[in-house]
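The protein record reproduced below.
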Amino acid sequence: MATATPHEFLIPEQVLRTALGLIRDDLFIAATFNRDYESDFGGGKGASVNVRIPAVLKARRRTLAEAGTPIVVDKLKESTVAVKMTHMIYSAVDLTDEQMTFSIEDFTRQVTAPQLVAMVEDIENFCVETMQALPESVGIAYDPAAPELTFTRARKTLRDLGLPADGLWAACGTGVYANLVDAKAISDASQSGSTEALRNAGVGKVRGFNTVESNRLDDDEIVFYGRDAFTLAIRAPKVPAGAAKGESRSENGFAMRWVQDYDSNILADRSIFSTFIGAQALKYPRLDKNDPDGFTEIVPALRVKTGTPVA
């Protein structure tokens, strides 16, 4: 009696559940992005969503002596920002008959895991590239021996822009993180307000910022931001009608499709993981302190290159 080959037992649901669990645990920078808008994509709504930014109003004040005089009436005006799905991230590999018969003993370990590592790497790169698209914030001094002072200045800048003290993040390159470690500036990661997955990555508190190290950022780079500075949307493509096996699933906050098919021209199975993705910085209106009746648009984030001299 013939022995069944490993791929005969592959159940798309189980493959994707394993995949989504692995991908959730390995995403660090992406896990700090706002995900509130991704449910608005798809279902005939297209690959672009107009995100409604709440109106900002300034309260008026008058003295009691002004009773009976006309009041100032403001116009309620909301703004919108177009958030787009711009790319598909995928990993596709061919598995020959010989491989599937003689080499592949554990599909998850030998096939799924390497493909997911590639997917995670590119999702993280995609998010970091979104951060690095911000212009550099100049004029913030940096001392490698006292790196926490830069965090204090950045916190003041963001707080002055109206950001809440809760939910502040700092992503930094390995050089900056090394300075923080040497200066003993990082408090116990277990005391941070981060998720368990991020705590496992070594997240700590520095001057009110949940701080995470990323080797995708430049060695001397820091991005300070609030939760709403960057938005990320991930949606799973539909399973094609011609696929032999496939599943499209959303779980643990992330979505992905897996398809397995057979190419008779080269006598090989093909395993394909894929997802649609879009990420961008969002601008929000803030009251302008220099203009009592005016507003200004800001991205609630600062990108600092510590190697840039301060003029």
Q: What stands out?
A: The longest strand covers residues 268-281. The first helix runs from residue 12 to 26. The chain has a mean pLDDT of 81. Residues 90 and 282 are 26 Å apart (CA to CA).
